[in-house]
Design brief:
- With 93 residues, the protein is mainly α.
- The chain has one domain: S15/NS1, RNA-binding (Helix Hairpins, Orthogonal Bundle), CATH 1.10.287.10.
- It is built from four helices and no strands.
- Helix 2 packs antiparallel against helix 3 and helix 3 runs antiparallel to helix 4.
- The longest helix has 24 residues.
- The mean pLDDT is 94.
Length: 93
């Protein structure tokens, strides 16, 4: 589980306004941190299939948020994936 301090740091890094907690960019950042933590967990616990299912669900949710951002503002999409260090999806800008 992502710690509150790490979550607040991600929100502060990606928010557009002072009270922006739930924009797609912020949600992608939070999901990325959760995916990183869960990936490390699965490297140790290879048979934790419920965690693997949760990971796949988070990856899918992040992909949908990224598609939304890419459809509305391709420059923001490219800046976000560069900032987070994730690969560009094949179908997006």
């Amino acid at each position: 589980m992502i710690s509150t301090e790490k979550k607040q740091k991600v929100i502060a890094d990606l928010q557009k306004a002072k009270n922006d907690n739930g924009s797609s960019a912020v949600q992608v950042g939070i999901l990325t941190e959760r995916i990183k933590e869960l990936t490390e967990h699965l490297k140790v616990n290879k048979k934790d299939f419920m965690a693997r299912r949760g990971l796949l669900q988070m990856v899918g949710k992040r992909k949908r948020h990224l598609k939304y951002i890419a459809d509305h503002d391709s420059a923001a999409y490219l800046a976000l994936i560069k900032k987070l260090g994730i690969r560009q999806s094949k179908g997006n800008s």
